[in-house]
Write a structure and sequence with these properties.
420 residues; alpha/beta; 3 domains; six-stranded parallel sheet; four-stranded antiparallel sheet
Length: 420
């Protein structure tokens, strides 16, 4: 397949370095496949020209989640793919190339495919078996197609990953018990909160992960959810789900009223810093003193759950009096282990998925090769047809038979070439 993956996750790196790599976004795929001197535009058929610095990448898909950054590349060779990915990741993150090289794990072809199928099935997740990753893998492929950076081989690989993920979910039950990073985070937070129906929550973010967090809050009985987003989408997001939008001016007040803040915007820069949270706690204290009939709201800490890889919440917030800050490192330390039986069953399904991928890839390549051979014969066939139209019927039948035999030979040649 000539496919390579370059990955970094919570399994390999500390979260501070992973956060730095988290500056990578879907648009990086365009930089990976961008034409350079000496190379035509990928996918256009433009002929390459001379030039030693030409990138060899034909396609790229970028997958980023709260605890991983991965780039999948179809390229002419390992050296070219590696150089291009290290170059663009370094330029995006500001990390020196040697640091990028040390941080990224490279896998080729079958190993890259197995890794993606395991990732999509939740087997490489911080919380093994979590299901959010399946949607993230699917959306990564959709974005790459929209950007024009995917290829038929990458499309097939990601489609197979989604197929395998669905089979793992149905057959093993790993995804049916509510296992998720959000779920574990809320479990940890719950120990310091009022009963869930009494919890007042603020949700920061309006992306797909925020949608999963909102649903998780609702499933636990949280009725009062305020939504804030720097993207300007809070109103639409909240109204569609029964929440209340909060603008930037109202964020400190919302936090002052809250028992729980869940933040997963993933945008560059902190949404909450120590000064802002301290101000919110001061306002909460003032209100508590004015509302003598209300039980002391500050008897419990304000729990802040930061689920963003690029931290939404300044780590100094954890030092503010009366605040309990939980982040991905905390969740990773408390993630429950999955049972050995379901994991082994899931791994077997991944192996089956790889076998199916190999068969589908062979069919794809045969079909592509046959089309190529057929196109090469088209001009000859058209000329023969033109001549035959002026000849007797027997000659026309003979010309048709020759064209049919040539097409069969083209298919046989393509199959034989791919089988070698």
């Amino acid at each position: 397949m000539n496919i390579w993956s370059f990955s970094a996750s919570h399994r390999d790196l500390d979260l501070d370095l992973l956060e730095r790599l988290g500056l990578v976004g879907p648009g990086l795929a365009r930089d990976v496949v961008a034409p350079a001197p000496g190379r035509g535009v990928p996918g256009t058929g433009d002929a390459p020209t001379s030039g030693a610095d030409a990138p060899a990448a034909r396609g790229a898909v970028v997958l980023t989640t709260c605890n991983r950054v991965e780039v999948y590349v179809e390229a002419d060779g390992a050296a070219e793919a590696t150089a291009r990915v290290e170059e663009v990741v370094g330029a995006t993150t500001g990390l020196p190339r040697h640091a990028v090289a040390a941080a990224l794990t490279r896998r080729a072809d079958g190993d890259a495919a197995r890794h993606l199928l395991r990732v999509a099935s939740g087997l490489e997740s911080m919380v093994v078996g979590e299901r959010e990753i399946a949607g993230q893998v699917r959306r990564a492929a959709v974005r790459a197609r929209a950007l024009g950076t995917s290829t038929p081989a990458l499309d097939l690989l990601f489609e197979q990953a989604s197929r395998t993920s669905r089979r793992v979910e149905v057959a093993t039950g790993l995804g049916t018990v509510g296992r998720s990073v959000v779920g574990v985070g809320l479990d940890l937070a719950g120990a310091s909160l009022p009963p869930w129906r009494q919890v007042r929550a603020v949700l920061v973010g309006t992306g797909s992960y925020a949608g999963a967090a909102f649903a998780a809050l609702r499933s636990r009985g949280v009725l009062d959810v305020r939504v804030h987003s720097r993207s300007g989408r809070a109103e639409d997001f909240a109204s569609a789900r029964g929440g209340v939008a909060v603008d930037g001016d109202g964020l400190v007040d919302a936090v002052a009223d809250a028992d729980l803040v869940v933040s997963c915007s993933g945008r560059v820069g902190h949404v909450l810093d120590a000064a802002g949270v301290a101000a919110a706690r001061e306002r909460a204290t003032d209100r508590a003193e004015r509302l003598a009939h209300e039980p002391d709201p500050l008897g419990r800490p304000l729990v802040i759950l930061d689920l963003a890889l690029r931290r939404d919440v300044d780590s100094a917030v954890g030092d503010v009096d009366g605040v309990l800050l939980l982040d991905l490192a905390t969740i990773g330390a408390h993630a429950p282990a999955a049972g050995a039986g379901p994991v082994a069953q899931a791994d077997a399904l991944v192996t089956d998925g790889l076998d199916e991928l190999a068969r589908r890839e062979l069919r794809r390549r045969v079909d592509a090769a046959v089309r190529e051979e057929a196109l090469a014969l088209t001009a000859v066939a058209e000329r023969e047809a033109s001549v035959a139209s002026r000849e007797p019927r027997a000659a026309r039948r003979e010309a048709f038979a020759r064209r049919h035999a040539a097409l069969l030979a083209a298919k046989a040649a393509a199959v034989a070439r791919l089988a070698r």
